[in-house]
Design goal:
With 206 residues, this protein is of the alpha/beta class. The protein contains 7 helices and 6 strands, in the order E-E-E-H-E-H-H-E-E-H-H-H-H. It has helices spanning 57-70, 81-87, 89-102, 136-159, 165-168, 174-183, 194-205; strands spanning 2-3, 18-24, 33-39, 73-79, 110-114, 124-128. The protein has a 6-stranded mixed β-sheet.
Length: 206
């Protein structure tokens, strides 16, 4: 199901256990795609939640710790570069989100998904366009997914410092593309993505 109006009565239903779900890392050329699911505790609200992209890195990191401390349940999951290449990024993102929901220690009755489509899951789900800036639980999931992915790219930077992952987090910036051409394709690059695929084709021809 899909909707853009978040004033549905189900949000006021005290019997619902609602988790927010979001992903991070669909656009980068390297690294896994991450997803998070969060069930917030009404008795322990987290202030300042919004779309992770609209927060500074320091604020995201601080909120991530607060979310983990105060939420009723949270889980983070991912799909690897190999899974992205095998499934495509859309299906890999859906799978990562499903894994996050299934990893929750508290079973939700409804998953609110950021975007315009939902992963196939055992529980009911609703897609909310721009939900990461409308629904607190989705904002929280957005923050956890983003901080987890950024941390993973800092780890990859330690393994492959020549690509500058600490500066661009795997996104196809001019610096990243320059380093990619200079050093070739690493094991953590997504081979199905056009800039990487083209470079691999050039290497085969050479």
């Amino acid at each position: 199901m899909k909707h853009d109006d978040i004033s549905l009565s189900l949000f006021d239903n005290a019997n619902e256990i609602i988790c927010g779900v979001d992903e991070a890392g669909r656009g980068p050329l390297a690294g896994a795609v991450y997803a998070a699911a969060v069930i917030l505790d009404p008795a322990r609200p987290v202030s300042g939640l919004r779309d992770s992209k609209k927060l500074s890195e320091a604020r995201r990191d601080a909120l991530a710790e607060e979310i983990k401390s105060n939420a009723l349940a949270w889980a983070i999951a991912y799909c690897t570069e190999a899974e992205i290449d095998e499934l495509n990024i859309l299906h890999a993102s859906m799978l990562a989100m499903r894994r996050a929901v299934e990893g929750l220690q508290v079973a939700p009755t409804l998953a609110l998904i950021d975007g315009n489509r939902c992963p196939v899951m055992q529980i009911r789900s609703e897609a909310i366009v721009k939900g990461d800036d409308k629904v607190a639980a989705i904002s929280a999931a957005s923050i956890l997914a983003k901080t987890a992915r950024d941390a993973s790219l800092m780890h990859l930077h330690q393994q492959y410092p020549m690509y500058g992952f600490d500066r661009h987090k795997g996104y196809p910036t001019a610096l990243h593309l320059e380093r990619l051409r200079l050093h070739g394709v690493s094991p953590v690059h997504r081979r199905s993505y056009a800039p990487v695929r083209e470079l691999l084709g050039q290497e085969v021809k050479a």
